[in-house]
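Posting for a labmate who doesn't have an account.
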Amino acid sequence: MAMLAQPAGPFALGTFSAPGGKPFPGLLTGNRVLDLSGALDWAPADVRAVVERWEENLPLLHTLAEDDALGRQPLADLRVHAPIEPRQIFQSGANYRQHVIDLEVAHRSPDDPRTVEEARAEIATAMDRRAAEDLPYVFIGLPTTIAGPYDDVVLPSWAAKPDWELELAAVIARPAHRVPVEEALEYVAGYTIANDLTDRATVFRRDMPAIGTDWLRCKNAPGFTPLGPWLVPAASIADPGDLRVTLKLNGETMQDESTKDMLFGVARLVSYVSRAAQLLPGDLVLTGSPAGNGIHWGRLLREGDVMEGSITGLGTQRTRCVAEGAS
């Protein structure tokens, strides 16, 4: 395995496996991994089990990270899987100012009498109103979309316009229901990277436009959410509202934006979701994708493409696109 980008802070969590072995929860320090299923007395089966007892485990994890006497495995000898298996995925849409402007302009009707400048100004005004009224746009994804950070991405044969959407993902630490914004970050265990792939051709229902969007169809193909590589504790990320989100396609930078451009930050999103649903330990709250998607560039994903996504302090994921049925 090539050298992987190191996360911020003294340690990170991940899911690993040795050749021919079963996945295990691991503590990453430097380029070595401690198997937490053996290092913790209660033998957690996976990272979600560690997160479910987050307040209790966090001091123990710090202690383990500082203990050089414990046996660790070289990261280079292990396969890296998605860091956690969530029960629920909450996805924020239209949450980056520049991204929304670009999408709205790209999807304008040919009969729209406005100039591009007029359209952009009106859209910006509408977003300011959304932010002031505290109305994020959140929908639900399926856990079966989760894939590893270095796994191949299978492009379904029916997906005519598959697109990338690199995002900051918050990992929930404890049950959260009707949480005030001021307390919401206390419910976040840490952060990871998600690439929330979308088939642009099936976002909207053409058979009955009044139905609107079809998120099941366009976003929930198996493996459409490469996740990780690491779960980085929240304390290691100074400000989730000031991170750089960068995606390269075949080495060319396509997305490169700060989370400062988000309309709704992590605290507001977690609070908003908790007003309608109960968040559970290990759940993901995806915070939306910045400008620079394929629909903006007029260049959608195709077989052989390699995506490299990174976020400040969270490492880098690298995935290759393959056609459905390809060997």
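Reply:
Got it, the structure tokens are right above this. Residues 101 and 120 are 6 Å apart (CA to CA).
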